């Protein structure tokens, strides 16, 4: 199974939607709250190619974008392969 990291803030509905999708798939993830730490948010943005919005999701160290992006990958049937599940 892939290593999944997600950068979030506590009140972000997109973060909640992304985490819910991962939970439905039974995927464990490492969550980092960037709401109170500008240095963490800056580090996230560097990893995410300059994107500062949350969530930012990484699968096996590769940035895949935010909630809309992983939901789109799921709709296209590509997310499970990236996560190393199913099939």
UniProtKB/TrEMBL annotation:
GO terms for molecular function: glutathione disulfide oxidoreductase activity. One of its GO terms (biological process) is cell redox homeostasis. InterPro entries: GLR_AS, Glutaredoxin, Glutaredoxin_subgr, GRX_bact, Thioredoxin-like_sf. Keywords: Cytoplasm, Disulfide bond, Electron transport, Redox-active center, Transport. Gene3D superfamilies: Glutaredoxin (3.40.30.10). PROSITE patterns: GLUTAREDOXIN_1, GLUTAREDOXIN_2. This is Glutaredoxin. It comes from Paracoccus yeei.
